[in-house]
Design brief:
The protein is mostly helical. The protein has a domain of 95 residues. The chain has 6 helices and no strands. Helix 1 packs antiparallel against helix 2 and helix 4 packs antiparallel against helix 5. The radius of gyration is 20 Å and the shape is globular.
Length: 165
C-alpha cells in the first residue's frame, strides 16, 4: 500500500516536472495550479494510509474528500504552524549572522550549529504539521480526538468565539 502510494506520488511529480520543462509560460502556470491542487488533495494521504491501509486510488480519493470537507481547518492550521515555524528558525538565523561576522574556525563552528538548528526547526515544523493532520483526519472520520485540539475547533476554525471578561 505504501509502496503503491509512493509510486503514484513519484510518477505524478515526475510527469509534472517533465511537462513544466517543455511547455511555455502558460503551461508552467497550468502545471503550478495542478501541482498545488495535487498537494492539497493529498494532504491527508499519510493518515489515510496509516489508519485505513487502502490502495493508492482510495487513498487519493479519501484524502481529497477529507480536504474538501475540512479545508478551512487545514489551511488555518497550516498557516499557524507555518508562522510558528518562523520562531523556530530565529535561532538558526542569529547563529548564521554570528557565523558570518565571526569568520574563521569559530565562524565555521557557528555555521554548523546554525545548520543543525535549522534542521531541527524544519523537523519540528514538519512533525507538528503531520500531528495536526492526524487530528483533523480523526475528527473528519469521527474517531475520538484527544490532545491539544478541541473537537469544536476542528469542526469550525473560523467560527466566531465569545470573548471572555
Amino acid at each position: 500500500m505504501i509502496a503503491g502510494w509512493t509510486l503514484l506520488t513519484c510518477t505524478v511529480g515526475a510527469v509534472l516536472r517533465t511537462i513544466e520543462q517543455y511547455v511555455p509560460l502558460g503551461g508552467k502556470i497550468a502545471v503550478a495550479i495542478i501541482d498545488l491542487s495535487w498537494s492539497l488533495a493529498t494532504l491527508f494521504a499519510v493518515p489515510v494510509l496509516a489508519y485505513e491501509g487502502v490502495g493508492p486510488r482510495a487513498t487519493f480519493s479519501h484524502s481529497a474528500a477529507i480536504f474538501k470537507a475540512r479545508w478551512g481547518t487545514q489551511i488555518a492550521g497550516s498557516v499557524g504552524i507555518g508562522l510558528s515555524g518562523l520562531l523556530l528558525y530565529m535561532p538558526a538565523l542569529v547563529l548564521f549572522v554570528l557565523a558570518v561576522s565571526a569568520g574563521g574556525t569559530a565562524g565555521l563552528g557557528l555555521l554548523v550549529l546554525a545548520g543543525s538548528a535549522l534542521f531541527a526547526g524544519i523537523a519540528v515544523q514538519a512533525t507538528l504539521g503531520q500531528i495536526f493532520r492526524v487530528f483533523v483526519y480523526r475528527s473528519a472520520v469521527g474517531l475520538r480526538t484527544t490532545g491539544p485540539f478541541a473537537p469544536a475547533d476542528l469542526q469550525a476554525p473560523f467560527s466566531r468565539r465569545r470573548r471572555r471578561g
